[in-house]
Design a protein that fits this description.
Number of strands: 4
Shape: globular
Order of helices and strands: EEHHEHEHHHHHH
Number of helices: 9
Distance between the termini: 23 Å
Structural class: alpha+beta
Strand content: 5-15%
Length: 241
């Protein structure tokens, strides 16, 4: 299974695993979100999730980080079995900004629920279980990065069926992510609970932002999910994680 660990400054989290770990999650996630335009009211979420999954697919090919880890086999064990084999495995890794990762876990929840309507035993569905495991790993990493009193509220909101990304202005995730990166790295962990609530629960700031996006969409006669926010992200290697 994939491993997810918050980075030192809580700028994001490192998602790592071997090629089969990535394949298992990516196959499940791409299957659950389905084809584009299948759930029109969730098109913004679909597009955002697709972009995140494509980044993970690139990481699976070693495009970002390659990590060498112990596979647990000792020299004595291998000698006893008469085997000559490596004692280490190659893992691939990708650091995802916390705002992006939180929205990914949040949005996947919607597609799990949407697809469950057409699955006979959704709780036993292999792809559903794989995505739920990914969400659990995100929550586990978040718990370590966040104070207990904040974590409990965020966890409940993240998995609540009453919270949804239907008609979500996903441009807001970019705005929060860029704002988060502009905060001194030592202060990001303190800000993380607020960022998490802003993405999952929303609030006045989100509503004001969404109205601006809707107004721009109306002006140009475009769908909200086609409105692009100019997001000048720093290069991956230049981010102080």
């Amino acid at each position: 299974m994939l491993t997810i660990q918050s980075t030192p400054y809580a700028t994001g989290a490192t998602i790592s695993g071997d090629i089969w770990d990535f394949d298992a999650f990516l196959t499940a996630a791409f299957d659950l979100i389905g084809d584009t335009n299948k759930f029109y009211d969730y098109q913004s979420t679909h597009d955002r999730l697709t972009a995140a999954l494509i980044k993970l697919a690139a990481a699976r090919k070693g495009k970002e980080e390659v990590i060498v880890v112990s596979n647990g086999a000792t020299r004595d064990q291998l000698k006893e079995k008469g085997m000559i084999t490596p004692e280490r495995n190659v893992y691939f890794g990708y650091k995802m900004l916390w705002p992006e990762l939180l929205f990914t876990a949040f949005g996947l929840n919607d597609f799990v629920l949407l697809r469950s309507k057409n699955i006979k035993h959704p709780h036993l569905h292999l792809y559903t279980m794989e995505v739920r495991l990914f969400q659990a790993k995100v929550i586990e990493a978040l718990e370590i990065a966040m104070p207990d009193e904040d974590f409990s509220d965020v966890k409940q909101a993240l998995l609540s069926p009453e919270r949804s990304t239907e008609d979500y202005a996903t441009q807001y995730v970019d705005m929060l992510a860029l704002s988060y990166l502009n905060v001194p790295k030592e202060e990001r962990k303190v800000l993380l609970p607020k960022i998490a609530r802003s993405i999952i629960v929303g609030g006045n700031d989100y509503e004001v932002f969404k109205q601006k996006v809707v107004a721009e969409a109306n002006k140009t006669k475009s769908a909200v999910h086609n409105i692009k926010l100019t997001a000048d992200y720093p290069d991956y290697d230049d981010i102080e994680w």
